[in-house]
Design brief:
There is one protein chain. The radius of gyration is 39 Å and the shape is elongated. It is mainly α.
């Protein structure tokens, strides 16, 4: 039973770490005394977070049943149009790439066919022009 001692030690150390970490600060945004004095967060927090009163007013004004303002409708429409434009450009680019690929493949196939026909004609050439084979009269 040589594994019981390391497992027990690992569990005890994990328990010790958990009990010591309870007194530490959480990962939430700290309330600095400087921030509470001015009443507004500073820096990046200002762009992300708002005061509780402002948030409550926002949700009170904008419940599920209230109609959207014209500015919100316009903003959503602009977003939809931008998404449609990006999708259209993407599909157009994909179509152009496929058309270029198909054209190159067609050109390569035509070149291979032309080379094969030339080789066949050289191999079957009997010294007469036009080729005797095609001017043969059946009696």
């Amino acid at each position: 039973m040589s594994w019981t001692r390391p497992v027990t030690l690992a569990l005890l150390s994990a328990l010790l770490v958990l009990t010591l970490s309870r007194g530490s600060e959480g990962a939430a945004v700290r309330d600095d005394p400087a921030d509470t004095e001015t009443g507004a967060p500073q820096g990046a927090a200002r762009r992300v977070f708002m005061r509780e009163a402002e948030a409550a007013n926002f949700f009170r004004r904008r419940s599920r049943r209230t109609a959207k303002s014209q500015a919100e409708i316009n903003a959503e429409q602009r977003q939809r149009l931008a998404v449609d434009e990006r999708r259209r450009e993407y599909h157009e680019e994909q179509r152009n790439e496929f058309e270029n690929y198909a054209e190159e493949e067609r050109d390569e196939q035509n070149e291979r066919t032309r080379e094969k026909v030339e080789q066949w004609r050289e191999f079957h050439y009997d010294g007469l022009y036009p080729s005797y084979q095609y001017n043969r009269h059946h009696v």
